[in-house]
Every structure is written in C-alpha cells, then in structure tokens.
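2 proteins. here.
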Amino acid sequence: MNDYGMFINGQWTTTKQTTPVLSPATEETIATVPIADERSIQAALAAAKKAQRDWGRRTGVERGNVLRKWADLIDQNRERLARLLSQEEGKPLGEALGEIDFGNSWFRYYAEFDRRIEGEILAADKPNEQLWIFRQPVGVVLGIIPWNYPMAVAVRKIAPALIAGNTIVLKPHEDTPLSALELAKLANEAGVPPGVVNIITGPGETVGAALVRSPIPRLITFTGSVETGKAIARSAADNVTLVSLELGGKAPFIVMDDCDLDQAVSTAVFSRFLNCGQTCICNERTYVHKRIAKEFLERFVAAVQKLKIGNPLQAGTQIGPKVNRQELEKVEGYVQRAVKAGARVVTGGQRKTGRGFSKGYWYEPTVLTGVRQDMEIMQQEIFGPVVPVMEFSDFEEGLSFANDCRYGLAAYLFTNDVHRIMRAVRDLEFGELYINRGPGESIHAFHGGWKQSGAGGDDGRHGLEHYLQKKTVYLRYQG
C-alpha cells in the first residue's frame, strides 16, 4: 500500500484527512490519498494562476517539447502504469495497456500544435489600419474527470490545456485518483514548471464543488454524468466561466436485416462489454430487425456466455468488476426493476458468485429481452455489463426508437444499404456515429454529444478551440 500526496505547485502535499483507494476486484485498500481542504484547494488555484503568465508566454515549440518528453516518460513506464490502472479501476490488464497508449497519444497529437495555433489578418475598413484576430490562452483550466478511463481522460484534458498556454487544476474521481497522481510524478522530469499542472483529490460533492465555485478558473472541462454536469453549469454561471461538458450516453445499436451478421454480433458484444460496460459510448440498447432477431439473439447470447469474467490482472480475462459497490447496486437495481416491469433475463441477471468472487463488485454479463421502449432500462444509462435487446419492424421505426431518448452521444448502425446509411447520417440525433464498426474515437476527430449528452467536447482542432480565446486588435499606423 502507498500513501499518496496531492501535486500542488510542483510539490507533494498532504492534509489531515485521507481516504482509502480500494481494489474493486478484492475490496482491499491499495493506497490512501488526501482529502483536499480549503487551504490546499486555494493553494492549487493560486499556483495555477501565478504560473500561467510565464507558461503562456513560452513559445508553442517550448510547450510542445514538454508534452513530447512527458509522452516519452509514459512509454517508459507503460507496464507499471497499466498494472496500477487495472488495480484501481478493475479493467482487464490488456484494456489498461490500451488505455495508456491511447491516452498518451493525446500528448503527442497536441504537441504537434506547437506551430499550428494561428490567428487571422482581416481587411481593414479604414486606411492605414490593420485588423487582427489572434488566439490566446483562457488562463486557468479546471478539469474534472470520471473513474472509467482515469489515465486517458486526464491526458485528454491536460494536453490541449497546456499546448494552448493554459495551466490546469485537475480533480480525478475519488475512486480512481492514482493514475493521475502517477502521471504527475513524471511532470517534473518532463520539464513541467511548478504550478502549471496541479492534481487535487477528494470527493466531488465537497472538493469538486469548491473548485467549481471559484472565480479563478476561466474554463471548466468536465466528463461525467448528466446530473453532475448540470450542477457544474449552474455553479459556473455565477462567474460566467466557460464550460465544456461531455456527459452520459445511451447508445443505440441498430442491426438491419441486410448486414454482415457475424460482424454485427461480435461488435455488439465488444461494444457492450468493453470495460465492463463502463464506457459512455457503449452499446446501451440493441435494436434488431425482426427478420433476423431470432438468429442474432442466439448468436449474441452464445458469445456473451463465453466471456471470461475474473481477476483483471490475469491473462485472458475479458470482464472485470464494477468500479465500486454503489455502481454494482445501481446496475442490479436496473435489472430487478426491468424484470418486474416484464423483461426476461436470457443470461446472467445477478451478481457473480462462487470461488474467487466472494470479495469485489462482480456482476454477470446479462442480456434482457421482452423490453419496451418506455421502460427505464431503455431510457436511462446502465453503465454496466447489461444489454436490453428489442425488435423493430422497419428502418423508420429503428431510427425512431434510437432518437427517442434524452441522450445523444453515440449511435451504431449495421447495414450494407448506402441509402439507409445516408438517411441515418442525416437523421440520427447523436454527436458520434459508428457505421459497420465498433467504438473508438480518433484523437484528431471530435468527441461531443448532442441533447443532454453535453455541450462542447474534446479532441482534434475543434476540441482545442475552447482552450483558447480570441482577441481582436485594430491597429492604426502612420501613412
């Protein structure tokens, strides 16, 4: 077990109160971290504010070189970081290694913007004048990140903030703070100046709320639940703080009768059960055309029943535990209420028990049928290894079911009909569409939700925009 501190102004600091970090596979304490008090919160914000001016005045090349060095250090520590990530979050080690690599790619990608943050020169209305629009950092960024991808999303926030010339105060989720703290251990060696990156730990209800209320951050970038995102937006309004929200999802997975059925089945399984279903773009509700519903379900259930659930550190494990007891009970409640409302459990449907599962937060991979569109389980984000499967009669009905939801983050469509594809691209109310393929965004694209799945977003040049603010200059000179 390790005792961690918080990373403030380039130094490690502690507070009187600490909290344990539990392994979701064993419920054992693997580390302790501080609970930030008011003094440490203000110290982190003040350090970020003080450091921003000098960091923002560095050239883009200087900032980019720091990100490249940091990425090199992550590569050198890849296996150690992945193992720690697997222990604190519960994802299989193979997935953890993938998260390290994917997260690290944001450092390298945004380092390439060292010469690409550009302004504009416009034609002036008056003689002997120049009209410029150029981009400057917003200042101090507050990043609040979830527990499901604690390393990747940390870098997703840090990299664009820093290349744009901002400083950042980052609050990881209280269940999974270790990845971000280990990332900070490499910051000094990478050449990150004191105060440019600060990591604060503690519960969102107290520490996160105090950070959000502060007038010092000029941008809050948040990934997490819809309800927390709404609360952040309300608090940020008092200081007119910019907000970027990437919130929950309820991705529909539409399977048409002309698709490659083998591909659709394997992708539906992967998309639902990746990271124990704890991914915001996961297949949350599967809609299958009635002509192929029986065959799809038989193949799908057979594939689900072959999934290996167990110790995330063991080779071959495909599904680990839920991240904490509260999340386990939430998923369990969704299934119980669905069954009470008329759904049928085809496979799974309960906590995993038996040898090796007496401790930890285990739930069986579960498939439900007999569901209706108005059921809670078809409308609310499950965020676990449970998938409801429902039939539809034609393409229009499938699109209607998919759009009938408050969420609009991601959607899937399997069909070989180009006309259906084009209609889906036009009509599906989601920020991300995966057509005849599984999940996984590209770092140079854009990841953002529609409707209650968010405002703003991450990745690519569009994800960089809210880390910069525009300044317009009217310059008159001697003719």
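next one coming up
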Amino acid sequence: MAETIIIPNEHGPYHVKGDFRLVLSDGTELDVEGGETWLCRCGLSSMKPFCDSTHKKSGFRCDNVEMVERSGA
C-alpha cells in the first residue's frame, strides 16, 4: 500500500493523497488507491465531507499554528 499524505492547506481544505479509505457518516466506504481528494475544513461545504471552495467566500482562516501546537512538533 502506498503512503497516505494529508496536507492542511492554509485557509483551505485538507488535501489527501495516496491510498486511503474514507468512511462516511452513513457507513458508505470509498476506497481510493493512488488518488487524491480535498476534505472540507471550514464546515460550510454543501458537499461534505468534500470541499466545494466555500471557504474562499466565507473568509475561513486557519494559520496552522494550532495544528503544530497540538501535534507537539
């Protein structure tokens, strides 16, 4: 299995690359091999859990410092 990478884009979605399985709230499973997707981080997407770029219109801001502090890096 290839490596999975999750990149939190500043002021935007999580960019997920590699092989992964996404389990939706209704139990539906989506297997992605060697693919990529963008997951909503602002909570306003009409396509949750996927990003629809609503963060750009809403003014969503995250400087990622909080994530670094939580990870202990």
